[in-house]
């Protein structure tokens, strides 16, 4: 299907915004700069995206689409167990976050916005232009798409026996997802040299993956302390 002139212009603005948000950050980027870099008028830029908040929500939507493609590629893998898919997801998400720092930050920023949005008492803290963005409204509809694919991976693992059967797929995936996101966020603090803690990125990552696998397989078992009978005399 041929791409219309409108779609081409919208994509151009979006691509330029992504480059500027990546290099200068959200706060350091202006709509004037986006228009100038794209080689179009400021008025035309505002025709496609109402304001910078609307543009950032469009970028966030694209970030979710890119992350969803990672999930889709994994779920399509042939001959992989559910546990292997979740392990692959762990590695590919780390790679996604490293190569697409701005996308990852946009996704996490939206999660924070959504936390405010879910509570009527805190919804007023969200910038009103974000709430008015059609892209924000679209994000509300699709932000669970990745989760649905992840739940499929867990369900597949339970079915094929690679994940223990008593686990509830929804709870299990979102717990693993929280662990993966938390790991990625903590690579900064762990990577910063600290003599008092004995953990380094080169041994934490394989340890993290193994712990996740053991949790899902059910190989983690509490060890009762052995009672040693001794005599004081």
Automatic annotation (TrEMBL):
InterPro entries: Homeodomain-like_sf, HTH-type_TetR-like_transc_reg, HTH_TetR, Tet_transcr_reg_TetR-rel_C_sf
DNA-binding region extent: 30-49
PROSITE patterns: HTH_TETR_2
Pfam family, one: TetR_N
SUPFAM superfamilies: Homeodomain-like (SSF46689), Tetracyclin repressor-like, C-terminal domain (SSF48498)
Keywords from the UniProt entry: DNA-binding
Signal peptide: none
Protein name per Swiss-Prot or TrEMBL: TetR/AcrR family transcriptional regulator
Classification of source organism: Bacteria, Pseudomonadati, Bacteroidota, Cytophagia, Cytophagales
